[in-house]
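Example S7 (structure tokens).
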């Protein structure tokens, strides 16, 4: 099932991508010199992660019941490049991800079965990016295509990215526009199904679209040799089936309905990121984001990470993230929805809550390669623990291997 409680996993993986490298000022290249036009492999990244969670507010059973879930995710990212006759650089990135999860709450869609198809699933999501850049100016543009599939949905995505740098390379503007066209299989709780050909357990009840469009505007500025700051605005719009129809909602009169939410949603996150190089050993990385949408959700998120360089090839990066969320107007707990409500959900992901996410990463990048393997450029192991005021708790551990 696409609708899982994996926000923490995506948030954790965003830490890897956002903080895995420090932005540096590009060095101009002499494009008049010979550049090989053969396609070569620049690097290969392998990321494996294990995620588990538990809680007692499953939206599948109306806001009560187990939220136990386990997920194993593996991705491989291959980056290749070549130079054109005019000295421009073409970079190609192919990524393939495979996730497999088991979910006790999803299995409650039809609790009369011993183990339904919804109790576990595998998601496969390949993507391909092409970017052309001018290494002398630092400017670039590119396109991405992606696909994702699992038991109850398929998604096709496309994106365009653009980067522009100032002449002194101290200011950078990044723009990205993307679209995802999803198709969902509408699955209802067993109690709300109309028997189909005499089989009340039939889970196939047609399909419904969900389309998502978003843009990202980022402005990065090097203040001085020690201090860098960036501002990011990411408006987005969704249209289609935005409710998860196999999630139950219970009303004050004891009746039951499938989750119902508006078919349009506007989101606006605004973030500020700051990197301060305290000295050769310490970096202070701070992040703040404000979020709001037309469903009434507002959220503040603050994060701090302090990588510590123990020696030239070993570092440790403790981090902490705090989030405060004001929930949607459509949320109430189990059995508290009013009979006349037009929209309703008991999904605690959309409720008012506070959360803490903390952990640390360990990174090895010896000059002769990890464990003496020259091709294995670096290895990073990260662990994070997430806890929120609703009682949900989770853990995630990931291993990132970079080959160059």
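Recovered sequence:
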């Amino acid at each position: 099932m696409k609708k899982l409680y994996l926000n923490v996993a995506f948030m954790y993986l965003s830490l890897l991508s956002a903080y895995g490298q420090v932005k540096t000022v590009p060095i101009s290249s002499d494009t008049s010199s010979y550049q090989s036009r053969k396609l070569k492999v620049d690097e290969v990244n392998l990321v494996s992660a294990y995620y588990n969670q538990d809680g007692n507010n499953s939206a599948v059973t109306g806001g009560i019941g187990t939220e136990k879930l386990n997920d194993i995710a593996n991705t491989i990212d291959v980056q290749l490049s070549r130079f054109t006759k005019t000295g421009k650089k073409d970079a190609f990135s192919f990524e393939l991800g495979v996730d497999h999860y088991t979910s006790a709450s999803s299995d409650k869609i039809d609790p009369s079965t011993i183990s339904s198809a919804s109790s576990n699933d595998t998601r496969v999501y390949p993507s391909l990016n092409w970017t052309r850049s001018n290494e002398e100016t630092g400017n670039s543009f590119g396109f991405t295509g992606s696909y994702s599939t699992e038991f109850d949905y398929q998604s096709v995505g496309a994106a365009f990215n653009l980067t522009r740098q100032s002449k002194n390379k101290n200011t950078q503007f990044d723009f990205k526009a993307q679209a995802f066209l999803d198709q969902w299989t509408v699955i209802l709780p067993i109690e709300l199904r109309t028997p189909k050909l005499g089989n009340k357990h039939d889970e196939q009840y047609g399909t419904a679209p969900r389309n998502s469009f978003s843009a990202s505007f980022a402005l990065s500025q090097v203040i001085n040799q020690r201090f860098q700051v960036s501002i990011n605005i990411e408006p987005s719009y969704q249209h289609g089936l935005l409710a998860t129809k196999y999630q139950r909602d219970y009303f004050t009169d004891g009746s039951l309905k499938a989750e119902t939410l508006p078919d349009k949603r506007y989101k606006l996150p605004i973030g500020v990121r700051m990197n301060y190089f305290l000295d050769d050993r310490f970096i202070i990385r701070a992040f703040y984001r404000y979020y709001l949408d037309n469903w009434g959700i507002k959220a503040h998120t603050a994060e701090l990470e302090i990588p510590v360089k123990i020696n030239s090839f070993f570092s440790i990066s403790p981090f902490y993230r705090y989030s405060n969320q004001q929930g949607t107007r459509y949320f109430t707990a189990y059995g508290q929805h009013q009979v006349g409500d037009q929209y309703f959900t008991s999904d605690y992901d959309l409720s008012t809550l506070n959360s803490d996410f903390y952990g640390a990463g360990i990174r090895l990048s010896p000059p002769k390669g990890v464990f003496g393997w020259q091709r294995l450029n670096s290895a990073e192991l990260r662990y994070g623990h997430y806890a929120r005021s609703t009682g949900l708790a989770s853990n995630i551990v990931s291993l990132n291997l970079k080959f160059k």
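Notes on this example. The longest helix spans residues 7-19.
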